[in-house]
Amino acid sequence: MHDNATFDAADLRARFNPEGSPLRRQQLVMLDMVRVLDGICKKHGIPYFLYGGTLLGAIRHNGFIPWDDDLDVAMLRSDYQRLVKVLPDELPEHIVLQTNDTDKNYFFFIAKLRDKRSYLSEDGFDTVFKEHGIFIDIFPLDRLLPWTQRLRLQSLAYNIFRSGNGSGAAMRRIRALTWFNRHISFPVLRTISRLSGTRALMCDLGIPFHNVYDLQDIFPLTTHDFEGLQLPVPGNSHHMLQVMFGDYMQLPRDLDNVYHHVERLEFYD
Q1: Are strands 95-98 and 49-50 parallel, antiparallel or unpaired?
Q2: Nearest C-alpha neighbor of 267 from the set 92, 138, 132, 136
Q3: Does residue 243 contact residue 211 with C-beta atoms inside 8 Å?
Q4: CA distance 204 to 76
Q5: Were 107 and a residue from 13, 68, 178, 228 both cysteine, which residue would form a disulfide, CB within 3.0 to 4.6 Å?
Q6: Residue 10, burial from CB neighbour count under 10 angstroms (0-12, 13-18, 19+)
Q7: What DSSP string describes 118-164?
Q8: Which domains does the chain have, with CATH numbers?
Q9: Are 167 and 161 in contact (CB under 8 A)?
């Protein structure tokens, strides 16, 4: 085990993401996208913050976790709804928004920004999704009664996808399930949660992460260095990271098994 005082950042970079390596090139594409997102959010006054492993990377490494191949941001659901409305008119040509509205087979309940100059294959979703590029994830957070998240109403879509190998029949079932959850079951559960007065802030319904956060840990936001950019992070990132990762300043015990194992990655210059 290593602690934050002893691990060598240069050694980690040389081992996992040296300059010019496919992973480092992927990270730089994601960094370009979050730079664009940051500018759009500032222009429209939409608060967002680094989230998940990206927040961990910012605090522990001042950038990407050296072996990390994704980038996550989060925001309150009301801000998320504002963002997805303005993004299509604000994004440069090489970046595209992916949501349930822009891709009929996309059954996730987070938005993605996709780079159109690359191709990424992971878990077979590229066989049915319209967009396939390197991506960053945008998570909406909402006030929810914890039991509503544990219903896992959208998890059936993943089971159908895997059992049906993304066939036409499987995707028709998935589209029907996603429509029902998006327009009927999830709005009802959000309303129940809102009327209950719950203060439990969680990833929105359909997202399989069940940590409960405190709004006071998030706002007011501050900034932190991330690969040379000053990007927004929760005001109490320490407690947020404790909730997500426990002793988050410790490196994993087994550094030989920390990759996400992207199946195929291509760059189009």
Answers
A1: unpaired
A2: 132
A3: yes
A4: 9
A5: 178
A6: exposed
A7: EEEE-TTGGGT-S--S-EEEEEEEEE--HHHHTT-TTHHHHHHHHHH
A8: 9-142+210-267 (3.30.460)
A9: no
User: Cα dist. 183→65, 84, 205 in Å?
Assistant: 37, 17, 12
Q: pLDDT tens digits for 171-201?
A: 999 999 999 999 999 999 999 999 999 999 9
Which residues pair with residue 157 across a beta bridge? none
Selection from 261, 197, 230, 243 nearest residue 50 by Cα: 230
> What phi and psi values does residue 140 have, to the nearest 5 degrees?
-85, 140
Residue owning tokens 């910012």: 58
Give the residue ranges of DSSP H helices in the chain.
Answer: 9-16, 22-44, 52-61, 77-90, 146-149, 155-164, 168-180, 186-196, 215-218, 237-245
Question: What's the CA gap between 144 and 240, in Å, rounded?
Answer: 17
pLDDT tens string 68-115:
999 999 999 999 999 999 999 999 999 999 999 999 999 999 999 999
Alpha-carbon distance of 187 to 172, in angstroms, equals: 22
